[in-house]
Amino acid sequence: MGGSLKLLLANRLKPEELRLLYKSYDIIGDIAVIRVPEALQEQSEIIAEAVMQTHKRVRSVWRQVGPVSGDLRLRELEWVVGERRTETVHREHGCVFKVDLRKCYFSPRLSYERVRITRQVQPGEVIVNMFAGVGCYSIMIAKHSEARKIFSIDINPVAVKYMRENVELNKVKERVLPLEGDAKRIVEERLRNVANRVLMPLPERAYEYLDCAVLALGLTGGWVHYYDFEHAGKGEKPVEKVKMKVAEKLENLGVKFETPFGRVVRHTGPNWYQVVLDVKTFQA
Ligand SMILES: C[S@@+](CC[C@H](N)C(=O)[O-])C[C@H]1O[C@@H](n2cnc3c(N)ncnc32)[C@H](O)[C@@H]1O
Questions:
Q1: SS3 for 18?
Q2: 234 CA to middle of ligand 1, Å?
Q3: Mean pLDDT per segment of 10 residues, for the chain of length 284 residues?
Q4: Whose CA is nearest to atom 1 of ligand 1?
């Protein structure tokens, strides 16, 4: 956790307890989500109060118990202090995102990725966001680029409800179209051959859905922003490993492509990385 938080806790926790604290926590709107090591569970309230003291706008603190999981990518939260609600409004680069943290995925840590992709969007583009959540990437793109249409799919009905609300709040409803359902089914039925750019921010399943992204781009080709998790031991390069895996799949699909950019988005565990590739496909 941040230096100032450690200072605040210095006379409330023992030095060996201070050393166990996790380095980071999330502030989403006026809610903080912390993770507390097993050995410090009983000190959760003290830690949460210090978070509230450090961040004056925080109204409640929740403890994440267990990883983000399941198809809907949800995290189990336990209330620690403050107001007992998980709905909040988060502000990011001129956009507002209303979200219920218990019922939808949201991560402020992807903020840079959203900006990075938004900067690449050209006027008039049609975009398919296959895993749109409450609409963060799509709304950011609509607000800060001249994209023509951003089809935004999510399978979680609650996320789609918030996405619809966020589209209104951000005044982008002419260009962001929320669609509820499985991305594969929706692309196959309604979005073949329509896109200049496809976003795949679901690292757990993007590989499985890559042929759908190709289908959405159609014959003229375009960009795919592909996310994945990769293990890389000593001497191995996670980005290169993902590039090879994706290359094999695209070659099998008979797609001409190049991958001019890839990077590690974040570490997700010992020797595990979240990776993004920007893949350009060409006319068949
Ligand atoms: C990691 S979250 C990313 C959400 C959003 N792009 C963001 O950055 O906040 C992945 C999203 O994919 C959705 N999802 C999972 N399986 C899906 C599927 N088969 N079709 C469409 N959406 C799906 C989940 O509900 C979740 O909201």
A1: helix
A2: 31
A3: 74 92 93 95 96 95 94 96 98 98 97 98 98 98 98 98 98 98 98 98 98 94 98 97 98 97 95 98 86
A4: 202
* 7/232 Cα distance (integer angstroms): 35
The closest alpha carbon to 119, from 177, 174, 197, 58, belongs to 197
Name the CA radius of gyration of the chain, rounded.
20
Does ligand 1 have an atom closer than 6 angstroms to the CB of 136? Answer: yes
The alpha carbon of 275 and the centre of ligand 1 are apart by a number of angstroms equal to 16
Question: Distance (Å, rounded) from C-alpha 233 to C-alpha 205?
Answer: 22
**Bridge partners (DSSP) listed for residue 264:** 275
Query: Torsions phi, psi of 276, nearest 5?
Result: -120, 140
Residue ID of nearest Cα to ligand 1 atom 6: 132
Q: Tell me how far CA of residue 10 lies from CA of 38, 116, 259, in angstroms.
A: 19, 38, 48
Which pair of tokens denotes residue 191? 């979005």
Domains of the chain: 3-85 (3.30.300.110), 104-281 (3.40.50.150)
| Cα(162)–Cα(149) distance, integer angstroms | 19
What is the best residue among 109, 198, 202 to mutate for testing ligand 1's pocket, by most ligand atoms within 8 Å of CB? 202
